[in-house]
Write a structure and sequence with these properties.
The protein has 4 helices and 6 strands; from the N terminus they run αββββαββαα. The protein has helices at residues 2-9, 47-54, 78-81, 84-99, and strands at 16-20, 23-28, 31-37, 40-44, 60-61, 73-75.
């Protein structure tokens, strides 16, 4: 999954790479936009986009530990991670939304 992440994020040079939870992640303006956690790929999304994502089979709210769901984040289903066009669309949405947040 790390190799897939690296290949996908290379197409988005506007974001900054750092680690979060010990896994690779992308930040915009100091805010976490997307990243890996164990065997999942999470994205920060606008509320309407998050609702749309969570309607997809295999998507879920992102919880780095049981009972600790991170508001505004969801996990991408495997079918999206495996499809370049679909993955790029969700990454675009994530990076665009995160770019609207106040910089840290």
């Amino acid at each position: 999954m790390v190799a897939r992440f690296e290949a996908a994020v290379a197409r988005h040079p506007e974001a900054t790479r750092r680690k979060m939870f010990g896994y690779p992640a992308l930040f915009v303006g100091g805010n976490l936009a997307t990243g890996l956690f164990a065997d999942t790929w999470m994205v920060r999304l606008a509320p309407a986009d998050l609702e749309a994502l969570l309607r997809l089979p295999g998507a879920a709210p992102f919880s780095p530990m049981p009972g600790r769901t991170m508001k505004g984040y969801g996990t991408l289903p495997g079918v999206i991670v495996a499809d370049d066009a679909a993955l790029d669309e969700w990454l675009r949405r994530s990076l665009a939304f995160t770019g609207t947040l106040p910089a840290k």
